[in-house]
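Late entry, written up from scratch paper. The run itself happened at the end of the previous shift, but nothing got recorded in the book at the time, so transcribing now.
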Amino acid sequence: MGALQSKVAIITGAGRGLGRSIAEAYAAEGAQLIVTAARERAEIEQVAARTGALALQADVTRDEDVARIVETALARFGRIDILVNNAGRGMKFVSEHFMTEPALFWDCPPDAWRLIVETNINGVFLMTRAIVPGMMKRRFGRIINISINLDTMRRKGFSPYGPSKAALEAMSAIWAADLEGTGVTVNTLAPGGAVATGMIPAAFPDALRGSLLQPGVICPAAVYLASDQSASVTGQRLVATEWNRAQGLT
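Output as recorded:
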């Protein structure tokens, strides 16, 4: 029996990269899944075909889409046990060359700033707010917010992506305190470095791509934080590469 047998999980931004890897890991551990993406329906349908998940095209920044995700999950499965807030927008919306040339904040188009902040902060709030009451009622819930390295939050040329993840970390700590004693945990999980996902622009030099982490690096810690084993863990920040080493994983 898997570590997540019969648990119901929603994973946002699950069409590719970290979200897709987490969905596949959760399915292998017996979870029932709802996977979402704002744009690429074909990608989440591929994930659904591989994992048996229910695929929903939905934008986490839209109240009506969030309501539809939750209503559909409850109608299909009757409850929601796990929420992985993975949907996010990165620096490539500001500049295709951000990995090699700092994208200075005064050059950031306001529309790109709003897009990143809306998704990375407000989308997480809307999804978590919609799901927490049901979790509290059943006195069980696992909320996992996907973050980044602390240095990246303060890296030159990384506005607004870095600040948006710093806000996510603060939100997570506050929400964990708000939910203390309810059976619902809130933790952040960072992969441990730059990952080979769609957030890496096409302009990134091929010679450097070998240094990128693979999305699967995040899966063991993501499974742990969603499982019954992590019941006493809340308000914490896990880094997947460090967690893997501590567990003797390569």
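The beta strands are 8-11, 32-37, 54-57, 82-85, 141-146, 184-190, 237-239.
(Scratch paper discarded after transcription.)
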